[in-house]
Write a structure and sequence with these properties.
By secondary structure, this protein is an alpha+beta fold. It is built from 10 helices and 12 strands. The strands form 3 sheets. Strands 1-5-4-3-2 form a 5-stranded antiparallel β-sheet. It starts with 13 loop residues before the first helix and ends with a strand. Keywords: ATP-binding, Cell inner membrane, Cell membrane, Kinase, Membrane, Nucleotide-binding, Phosphoprotein, Transferase, Transmembrane, Transmembrane helix, Two-component regulatory system.
Length: about 475
């Protein structure tokens, strides 16, 4: 019978709690929906970036040449008009250009302070094209004497002038409208990717839920859609439904078989026991035969418990009440000393019947194999301790224990340790039933040798 430490009141060692596999290690991962969405989003971003680079390559050069040609044409026309007009007409022309075309012409002084135009790659390309079209003496500036605008410096018959244009003539490549359309397209693309990912993930999610229901023994859930459009999903759904039907039939056959075993074996056993008590005159022989028949009945119960369907109903369960109800019949047994120290307020999420079966099996295991080699008595210590998310229940006897190489096999069906098993009359299912019941309730079951002697069982359940 399991144990953890050598005293009742000492707490469970920290290394025991931390090393106990209370829950399997979970690897980091994402669901299929998010994985598909991320991949689609990455594809869209990559496509958008490629499109942007292509657009830049195809747009910059034609745009720069076109813009420079328009500005150069305006400068040449203005220069020609000024050259071939008299002084009065020239003043009128300059005024008309300023009012109607938003083009202002001012003399260029040697003391003028200006900043060259060219903040972006497009600006630099336009500047180079203007110098190429208007001549090497052309100056393109973004501000002159602190006044912002598109300034083009040129000469007319040896005189230098500034031509100031509205900078809006050079529309930026990325404006507010571009950004709005780009954001809208990106949002719509992500929404489409989410819808596509959801459509891909929906059949697999339904299959996952159906698999969980079948694993829990729920065969009455609606079957998966066998008429879906996707061929591969339809074939998987049909195969899963047929598998679930076969498992349901196997479960029904097992239930009927267990009911038949219970009836067909216990009825002749009861009759045989009655005939033995009435017909055997020797009291000792009669007592031995009745004990053998009772032992056969107990073994049948163990088989039925182990083959019981995996149906549990988790609820708030008082650990102290379950342990006390299970320990009560064992306290009256000769040579049994059970000491319980469990807070009455301690509760877990468990199936009360299943938890009681686990405690009873462990106490029965201690009664059979946990006798002290020195005193011949069976002493069992039961304690419980709560952590942030789990409750750890420990049952420890002071018997001879088992060899370390046998610990891993004690929870296997029909396996028993070789040491101190001279009174072994069971089927070797008690600990296997305990581990199976703990797994059904979402807990863990661990056996270890205690010091200086005995075995210890550590039960771990989610805290309520």
């Amino acid at each position: 019978m399991p144990s953890i430490d050598s005293s009742l009141t000492s707490p469970i060692p920290l290394e025991v709690l931390t090393s106990t596999p209370t829950s399997p290690k979970r690897r980091f991962g994402v669901s299929l929906f998010w994985r598909t969405l991320f991949l689609l989003a990455a594809l869209l971003l990559g496509s958008t970036f490629t499109w942007y680079q292509t657009f830049r390559a195809l747009e910059y050069e034609p745009r720069a040449i076109q813009t420079a040609q328009q500005i150069a044409s305006l400068v040449n026309l203005t220069r020609a008009a000024l050259v071939y007009s008299d002084a009065i007409a020239r003043v009128s022309l300059i005024k008309t250009l300023a009012e109607q075309e938003k083009v202002r012409i001012v003399p260029r002084e040697p003391t003028d302070k200006f900043e060259l135009y060219g903040k972006s790659q497009l600006d630099e390309r336009i500047t180079a094209e203007l110098i190429n079209r208007l001549g090497s003496g052309t100056v393109v500036a973004s501000s002159v004497n602190g006044e912002q605008g598109l300034w083009v410096g040129f000469t007319i018959e040896g005189d230098s002038y500034w031509l100031l244009m509205d900078p809006s003539r050079l529309r930026p490549l990325w404006g507010a409208a571009w950004m709005i359309w780009l954001l809208a397209a990106g949002a719509l693309s992500l929404m489409g990717a989410a819808i596509i990912a959801g459509l891909i993930n929906a059949p697999l999610k339904q299959l996952s839920l159906a698999t969980s229901r079948v694993r829990e023994g729920n065969f009455d859930a609606p079957p998966l859609d066998e008429h879906t459009v996707t061929k591969e999903i339809r074939e998987v759904n049909i195969g899963f439904n047929r598998m679930a039907e076969q498992l349901a039939k196997v479960e029904q056959d097992r239930t009927e078989m267990l009911a038949g075993i219970s009836h067909d074996l216990r009825t002749p056993l009861a009759r045989l026991r009655l005939e033995t008590e009435l017909s055997i005159p020797d009291a000792d022989a009669r007592e031995l035969m009745v004990a053998d028949i009772a032992q056969i009945d107990v073994i049948i119960n163990k088989f039925l418990d182990y083959a019981r369907p995996d149906h549990v109903s988790l609820s708030l369960t008082s650990v102290a009440e379950v342990i006390e109800s299970c320990a009560f019949p064992f306290r009256s047994a000769a040579g049994m000393d059970i000491r319980v120290e469990v807070p009455h307020s301690l509760q877990v999420m468990a199936d009360e019947v299943e938890l009681g079966r686990v405690i009873s099996n462990l106490l029965e295991n201690a009664r059979r194999y946990g006798k002290s080699p020195t005193t011949g008595l069976t002493r069992v210590n039961i304690t419980a301790q709560a952590t942030a998310q789990h409750v750890h229940i420990r049952l420890r006897d002071f018997g001879p224990g088992v060899r370390p190489d046998q610990l891993g096999g004690l929870t296997k069906p029909f396996v028993r340790g070789d040491e101190a098993r001279t009174e072994a009359k069971g089927a070797g299912l008690g600990l296997a039933i305990a581990e199976k019941a703990m797994n059904r309730m979402g807990g863990t079951f661990t056996l270890s040798n205690a010091q200086p002697s005995g075995l210890a069982a550590l039960l771990t359940l989610p805290v309520a």
